């Protein structure tokens, strides 16, 4: 459907990385924030309830889809300097959204495999994940105590860039640094467990970062802490996108959404860090039908056209058999006719 709403400046969708078979067109076509889950679903080859009539994404090959989609939402910033990107688009109607529907599609379609569905969002637990591959990411820092310990260990991001005005002792600074550390640890874990990026199931990463928003609230947007953090995050996201794209064999789509604040707050239920959502379809006491499956249209077309081809094949074969001359077209009748003449 057509995107609606009032254009809000200072927010946008940037495609950092995309495979060659995903055709993102460069232009200033606005996209509503509530349509981002549909955009992610389409890039991963899933069907959506309503057509996305947005010219920014063109139809690609039917049998080629990314092996992963990574969406990073950065709150509290008007824009980020990401020069090495595929395309960028303005975002209108910046309402809160989730990729829960896409995660459900991944789980239901690839239930027999081990898809990675990793979701990072501001909540009481700071981090929650879904999927069978949870155990690989169980070492990610969650609490402030774990974050402080992780930042003091080997491989910490504190040694990768100068902190300048940021402090590892301030809680707002620590929240921002923890999110940067999680981005670093995700790529490090995937490098150690490369089989997760090479299986037959697509992976989904939905990462929502609120560190800049907290820094803006505590120090203000004109503070050196906020400016340093914005510069650090831009370079970190650029490298994060390149690493994820490379780890998935140049077959990963990486998008970044920057929004100063969402128009409507999004409430999330608290989940366990290693919670694995069970996909079930319990029976109804009222004997109701199953919920509509969005893959129904695809399956219906496959069965329909296969039946049409088989019916046409039977008609052609029957027609040729009916008009066949046994004396010339059949070797059985020809051999029988010669035997009768010899007798």
UniProtKB/TrEMBL annotation:
Pfam families according to UniProt: Renin_r (PF07850), RENR_N (PF25294)
Cellular localization per UniProt: Cell projection, Dendritic spine membrane; Cytoplasmic vesicle, Autophagosome membrane; Cytoplasmic vesicle, Clathrin-coated vesicle membrane; Cytoplasmic vesicle, Secretory vesicle, Synaptic vesicle membrane
GO CC list: autophagosome membrane; clathrin-coated vesicle membrane; dendritic spine membrane; endoplasmic reticulum membrane; external side of plasma membrane; lysosomal membrane; synaptic vesicle membrane
Main location (coarse class): membrane
Source domain of life: Eukaryota
Record-level Gene Ontology MF annotations: signaling receptor activity
Signal peptide extent: 1-18
Domain Renin receptor N-terminal intervals: 13-260
Record-linked InterPro entries: Renin_r_C, Renin_rcpt, RENR_N
Regions crossing the membrane: 296-322
Any one GO biological process: positive regulation of Wnt signaling pathway
Alphabetical UniProt keywords: Cell membrane, Cleavage on pair of basic residues, Endoplasmic reticulum, Membrane, Receptor, Signal, Transmembrane, Transmembrane helix
Membrane topology: Single-pass type I membrane protein
Domain Renin receptor-like C-terminal transmembrane spanning segment: 268-343
Subunit structure: Interacts with renin. Accessory component of the multisubunit proton-transporting vacuolar (V)-ATPase protein pump. Interacts (via N-terminus) with ATP6AP1 (via N-terminus). Interacts with ATP6V0D1; ATP6V0D1 is a V-ATPase complex subunit and the interaction promotes V-ATPase complex assembly. Interacts with TMEM9; TMEM9 is a V-ATPase assembly regulator and the interaction induces the interaction with ATP6V0D1. Interacts with VMA21 (via N-terminus); VMA21 is a V-ATPase accessory component.
Function: Multifunctional protein which functions as a renin, prorenin cellular receptor and is involved in the assembly of the lysosomal proton-transporting V-type ATPase (V-ATPase) and the acidification of the endo-lysosomal system. May mediate renin-dependent cellular responses by activating ERK1 and ERK2. By increasing the catalytic efficiency of renin in AGT/angiotensinogen conversion to angiotensin I, may also play a role in the renin-angiotensin system (RAS).
Protein name: Renin receptor
